[in-house]
Each structure stands twice: as C-alpha cells, then as structure tokens.
Design goal:
- The protein is of the alpha/beta class.
- The protein is 36% helix and 25% strand.
- The chain has eleven helices and 15 strands.
- It has a six-stranded mixed beta sheet, with helices on both faces. Strands 13-14-12-15 form a four-stranded antiparallel beta sheet, covered by helices on one side.
- Helix 4 packs across helix 5.
- The two termini are 28 Å apart.
- 41% of the residues are buried.
- It binds adenosine-5'-triphosphate.
- The site of adenosine-5'-triphosphate has 12 residues, from helix 1.
- Keywords: Antibiotic resistance, ATP-binding, Nucleotide-binding, Transport.
Length: 317
C-alpha cells in the first residue's frame, strides 16, 4: 500500500492521509490507533469496500481498485460489525459464502464442518445467528472469512466485546492461521493485544502512520528502561511534570490522568534510566517540594502504550 489517501465526501480532512506499508506473506500485522484514527477506512480500501481517493493499494499483488473481483477472491474479511445472514443457520452462512466465492459444491459442507470444529462451534451448526452469543458470532464470522481459503485475512477489531476467554480463543486462532501461512492484518485499539499478536505494528493517528516496527523494537526505541507511576494529589500536574522531568535519570514524564477539581488523584508516569527504584527517592522528593502528596506508586516496564503516548502525547484509553 503506497501513499493511500481517503477523503469522505464533505469531510474537511482526510480519514487516511498518506499511509504506506507492506505486509509479508504469513505475517501478522497490527494497525493500532485510537477511535477515528483511520484504521477501518484503511481496511475498507484494502478489502474493496471503500473507494480510495489517491494512492495505490494491492492485496497479494492484485490492485484493489482495478481488479476488485480478483482481490476479493484472495482476501477474507472479518468486519467490525457482525453481518451474518439471519435467514440462514450458522453452517448455512458458511456454505453460502463458499458458494458465492465459487468453492465447488462437494467441498462446501465438509469445509464448513471443519471450520465450525476449529472455531469450537460444531454444536451450533444449526443455530440461527440471532441465538449466538457475541463471541460465538465473532468466531462464526472468522470461520466464514476462511471458507474460500484466502491468502490474506483482514480482521477489524476481532476481539472487541469478547470476554477474556473468547478473546484468548480468537488470539490462538489468529496465531494458528499465521503459522499456516495466512497473512493477517488486524486493527485494534488494545495495545496489549497488538503487542501479543503482531509480528509488526503500525501506529496510526489522524490518518497517518506514526511508527511501524516490531513491538519489541518500538518499545526498545523509547528512552528509559523502566516506568514509575505516581498517583498525586494537592499540586498542579503541569508544573509537577516539569519538576519530575528535571530529576536525574528521568528520560520523560507524561500525565496519564489529570485528576479532578474535587481532589481526585492525578497520575503521572516517568520513564527512567536504569532501575525504577533508583529514581524513586528523587521523584518523591520533587512531589513533596511541589506541595503534593503521593497516594500510590507503581513500578513497571515501558510498553507499546508508552510508545503511543510518546508519539501522540496522550493515552489511548
Ligand atoms: N462512511 C463515512 N463517511 C464519512 N466519514 C467517515 C466514514 N467512515 C469513517 N469516517 C470518518 O473517517 C475517520 C476515520 O474513521 P475510521 O472508522 O477509519 O477510524 P478507526 O481508526 O477505524 O476508528 P475506530 O477505532 O473507532 O473504529 C473518522 O473521522 C470518521 O468520522
């Protein structure tokens, strides 16, 4: 995908504003960004649902604009909103999808049975989509996306709304697909999910790609090797942030939560060099000197979330 731009009619800004990336066969690629960043639009263009404004988008070497039919034959989609056919049962949805994609009649039933089994849905084959739980419906949509043996599978927020168990199940299936050679492109606003599933992650905001690398490399690229979270009351966050940033060994300080007028604690995160404990006394002294009181302290290691905060100056959730 090169210099992709999408501007919706009447919009004042581009929903996708010049994004370029390439995904290798068998790779799991995560598009990460806050609501409205342009992830779904990007997937929409790649899956031929949204018409691009400019740039070039190909899937498995096929240009989605000039050969949308060819592109649809090699890609599978798991959309953000469930779109199962309620006039068919679970297995019927799979078989119909295979027919639509030209899978030979004799293969449709056995393939549907196999995918239902892989998604843990064998006993739901005859169930109407209306009677499936959210997690079951999501698994059925993943099965449907695989019925025509796509080379590239697009998953738009595959685990939003799922309970932790269903989420893990979906994560395992994604890893299994990639191990079997399917290229997976997924969107999420869950940093942990992106870090866990993706070989590489692209961080998107305001329609632009801010960073692209392996989760480990993105985190390693941050200055500071540990984090110290301080929950503080009794002092303004902006001056405190500056004071903390000046403490020796501190690589950067962000305000994660500004607190409330009514005295709710603010949370600041300092990224520090070396061990978190070594920087702690200096940080606590500065809070006291600023007239603040520390209610809680948390020590940790930087994550993708810190990469995002560093790039955009704000948290995702
Ligand atoms: N059909 C549409 N018509 C007009 N504007 C749209 C349309 N779809 C999306 N947008 C706008 O384009 C921008 C990007 O939206 P998009 O859905 O791609 O973001 P996203 O990163 O997928 O967000 P989310 O995490 O909420 O799904 C937003 O500002 C949104 O309001």
């Amino acid at each position: 995908m090169a210099d992709l731009v999408k501007r919706y009619p009447k919009a004042r800004t581009n929903a996708v504003d010049g994004i370029s990336f390439a995904v290798a066969p068998g790779e799991v690629f995560g598009l990460l960004g806050p609501n409205g960043a342009g992830k779904t639009t990007t997937i929409g263009v790649l899956t031929t649902r949204v018409r691009k404004t400019a740039g070039r988008a190909t899937v498995a070497g096929i240009d989605v604009a000039t050969d949308p039919v060819g592109a649809r034959a090699v890609l599978g989609v798991v959309p953000q909103r469930p779109n199962l056919d309620r006039s068919l049962d679970a297995k019927g949805n799979l078989v119909w999808h295979a027919a639509y994609h030209g899978v030979p009649r004799s293969q449709r039933g056995p393939l549907a049975d196999e995918l239902l089994a892989r998604m843990g849905l064998t006993d739901k084959a005859d169930t109407n989509p209306d009677e499936l739980s959210g997690g079951q419906a999501q698994r059925l949509i993943i099965a449907r996306g695989l019925m025509h043996d796509p080379q590239v599978l697009f998953l738009d927020e595959p685990s939003t709304g799922l309970d932790p168990q269903a989420r893990l199940f979906v994560h395992d299936r994604v890893a299994e697909l990639a191990a079997g050679g399917v290229t997976v492109v997924l969107t999420t606003h869950d940093m942990d999910e992106a870090a866990k599933l993706s070989d590489r992650v692209g961080i998107v905001d305001h329609g632009r790609l801010l960073a692209l690398d392996t989760p480990a490399a993105l985190v390693a690229g941050l200055s500071g090797s540990a984090t110290v979270d301080l929950d503080v009351v009794g002092t303004g966050t902006t001056p405190l942030r500056e004071r903390l940033a000046a403490v020796r060994g501190t690589a950067g300080v962000e305000v994660l939560d500004a607190g409330t007028q009514e005295g709710g604690a603010a949370r600041l995160r300092a990224r520090v060099d070396g061990e978190a404990g070594a920087a702690l006394p200096g940080l606590l002294d500065e809070v006291a000197a600023a007239g603040g009181r520390v209610l809680d302290v948390g020590l940790g290691e930087p994550t993708l979330e810190d990469v995002f905060i560093d790039l955009t100056g704000r948290g995702l959730r």
